[in-house]
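Project outcomes to date are best conveyed with an example. Our students and postdoctoral researchers have been running inverse folding experiments weekly, and each run begins with a structure described purely in tokens. The record below, which covers 98 residues, was selected by the lab manager from last quarter's runs and is presented without edits.
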């Protein structure tokens, strides 16, 4: 290997370069192939899963808001008619139910 010495390399210590180069050559590391078809399918599956979960959580929030609004309107209508609050049935919280 040829080394050219100039002003920039005067302060450089070349004693460890060959040992490090030998270490890099000797290690047996599998190549990382980012352009392979398997990697692209994996990224696509992750992106689809994330979009699906985001859409599901959006519609779940909309659903809960609609239920809360419907219950509020029903309670208001029953209160207007004269039914006491204790007589109004309450639905169990099913947000965390499987």
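After processing, the design step wrote out the following sequence:
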């Amino acid at each position: 290997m040829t080394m050219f010495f100039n002003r920039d390399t005067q302060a450089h210590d070349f004693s460890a370069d060959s040992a490090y180069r030998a270490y890099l050559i000797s290690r047996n590391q599998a190549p990382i192939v980012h352009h392979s078809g398997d990697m692209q399918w994996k990224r696509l599956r992750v992106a689809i899963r994330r979009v699906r979960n985001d859409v599901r959580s959006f519609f779940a929030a909309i659903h809960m808001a609609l239920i809360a609004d419907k219950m509020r309107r029903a309670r208001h209508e029953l209160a207007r008619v004269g039914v006491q609050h204790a007589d109004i049935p309450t639905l169990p919280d099913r947000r965390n139910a499987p």
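Residues 37-81 form the longest helix (45 residues). Residues 36-87 form one domain. The training component of this project remains on track.
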